[in-house]
## 1
Amino acid sequence: MAQPAVKVWAMDSGSKIRINRFSFGGTAGIVACVALVVGLGAAGAPKSVIVSSLLIVALADNLTDSLSIHIYQESERLPGKEAFLATTSNFVSRLLVSLSFVLLVLALSIRVAVVAALAWGLFLLGLLSWMIARQRGVQPVPEVAKHLFVALVVVAVAELIGDWIPTLLPAGP
């Protein structure tokens, strides 16, 4: 049985990157981390809670997504090596993205970290969207705009939840 062609995107004349290896993990990591920082920032969460949440997403949720991807790929009868590479690259890309947000929160005040996380996330998602659009041979600007719009909707929902929940539940244990 013939294997489907895997498209690549050339970074420069000598190297190639398989975007599909990190697009899911990168996107999930970016949007989830921005939403967490913005939502927890709106809720008035202390830095320790935001960092803990980011690390939980970086590890527990990431492992869950990676396992799900692996099992899905096995169900699609993807060769074991390809399934393992996809699983590993998903995990590593999402972990690295998540850790970059942890560093932002650790290095900055919460108010500044919220703005920086939003800017960093939009930059990363825009870059990834641009690369994918170029790979697909479509106009990058509409693709980037579409992806950023959806991400901003997710972030707005997270901020609304962060603003709303503290009004319903008392602070403290």
Note: The first helix runs from residue 23 to 42.
## 2
Amino acid sequence: MTALATGCSSGFDATARQSYSPGDGIQAGTGDLRVVSALVVSPEDSQDGVILMAVVNNGEQDEEITSIEADEGEVDYTGSHTIPAGETVLFTADSDPSAIVRGLSTKPGEAITVKISFAEAEPISLRTVVVPATGDYASITPAAEPSPTVSESGATPSGSVSPDPSSSPSTS
């Protein structure tokens, strides 16, 4: 009887023991925090891209995201900055929170580096890919960039107060 040898390796470098992301995005972590399925979705004719990801807090204390940056554009990060203890927070095009890369110079198929900084934990930097807004991602489009408010008398910067026409002196 002949024994069959298999090509399985063992130890810490075995392929079966290595971490991998089964989805389209990538994963990275620090301490009790993990970022999973991270990628950027951008329409072919756009200079904006939506950061899709899940941030998992396996710790016993809330954590705060202090910033999200990209090496290819400016990130417009809106909504909640808290990652509650024991919970997962999803970032999508219409979620709270959300993150849009504005002025994206990277095109679909190319790589981009995204850095997520936290109040207490070490930052997570990950190199992920920009995918086209087609197929499963066709409905994922970046929100329009906020623009200044316009009044009848002309442009008014957001947050400023326009004079109330009803309080003008009467000429009768």
Note: The two ends are 115 Å apart (CA to CA).
